[in-house]
Automatic annotation (TrEMBL):
Lineage top rank: taxon: Bacteria
Molecular function GO terms recorded: metal ion binding
Pirin C-terminal domain sequence ranges: 181-280
UniProt binding sites for Fe cation: 68, 70, 112, 114
Source organism (scientific name): Kitasatospora cheerisanensis KCTC 2395
The protein, known as: Pirin
Annotated segments matching region Disordered: 1-26
Keyword list, A-Z: Iron, Metal-binding
Record field: transmembrane: none
Family from the record: Belongs to the pirin family.
Length: 312
């Protein structure tokens, strides 16, 4: 951290704007992706942030992601509106609704499907991935569902779905130190949160124009702050409420090879996982109850898959 004559100079956040990406194969829906970026692959072990909606499903068709595989990661589903049906090869059939967490651990291999339900009129939420550290990335399949209680703060409210914040701790286990929470700020509110100085943090803006560590952020922006601060200050200067997703974790120093739905350490490992999915290997298991075919893997790129980490 830089200093001035009066002591440490407060950090300012780096801003990562989103890019539009089609998700889900032939019936693709468009999402706004803010992680990974060219300069930053991870925030803690968080390696993937997709932000979607609010979408009128009568117009867009909603979410319909056929059975597909994962290795080396955990998926985290969090909604602001709508309802998603989850089925996986562990045999789990579950739903996720606003204010609820679905966390699925792929480990060595899992397959799952995700579809918005008939009860959904407006679909709006985030889909997040967590990279598993090398010592745990071949762990067994797992699934957790958790409904965090809202924590009332001065001019704000928090729902902590992973880790600890504002005196509340999620019971859902993680393989590296992590934080995940939804925050809402009243109009004109300023909120200062105590945080772990060993964590780096990312703040995704769902709605509202806010200031994060002195840096303006707008809807769909991701603000990044390096480790060091013991507090984070958020301000909502607008006359309407702001809604945010705060993510954090200790820096993840392992380079990863990330392609399609796979996270490995070498290109050969990812190529092998793709081949096993195409051959319907028992490695990923079967998803029962989805009314359709599973997703085929895309063709591999003509360039070699390379490990990557953070550039800043």
């Amino acid at each position: 951290m830089s200093t001035t004559e009066n002591g440490p100079r407060p950090q300012t956040a780096r801003v990562f704007p989103p890019r539009d990406v089609p998700l889900g194969g032939p019936r693709a829906m468009t999402v706004r992706r803010t992680l990974p970026q060219r300069e930053r692959t991870l925030i803690g072990a968080w390696c993937f942030i997709d932000h979607y909606g609010p979408d009128d499903v009568a117009t867009t068709g909603g979410m319909d992601v056929a059975p597909h595989p994962h290795i080396g990661l955990q998926t985290v589903s969090w909604l602001f509106s709508g309802e998603i049906e989850h089925r996986d090869s562990l045999g789990v059939h579950a739903f996720v609704r606003p204010g609820e967490l679905n966390l699925m651990t792929a480990g060595r291999g899992i397959a799952h499907s995700e579809t918005s339900t008939a009860a959904t009129t407006v679909l709006h939420g985030v889909q997040l991935w967590v990279a598993l550290p090398d010592e745990h990335r071949h762990t067994g399949r797992d699934f957790h569902h958790h409904v965090p209680s809202p924590v009332a703060l001065d001019g704000a409210e928090a729902r902590v779905f992973l880790g600890t914040l504002a005196g509340d701790t999620s019971p859902v286990p993680t393989f590296t130190p992590l934080l995940g929470a939804e925050l809402t700020l009243d109009p004109g509110a300023t909120l200062t949160l105590d945080v772990d100085p060993a964590f780096e943090h990312g703040l995704l803006v769902d709605q509202g124009d806010i200031t994060f560590a002195g840096t303006p952020l707008h809807p769909a922006d991701l603000g990044y702050l390096a480790p060091g601060p013991t507090t984070l200050t958020l301000t909502n200067p607008s006359p309407t409420p702001a809604r945010l997703v705060l993510l954090g974790g200790t820096p993840f120093d392992e380079p990863i090879v990330m392609w399609w739905n796979f996270i490995g350490r070498t290109a050969e490992e990812v190529v092998q996982a793709r081949e096993e999915w195409q051959q319907a290997s028992t490695r990923f298991g079967e998803v029962h109850g989805y009314p359709g075919d599973r997703l085929p893997a895309p063709e591999l790129p003509n360039v070699a898959l390379k490990a990557r980490g953070n550039r800043l």
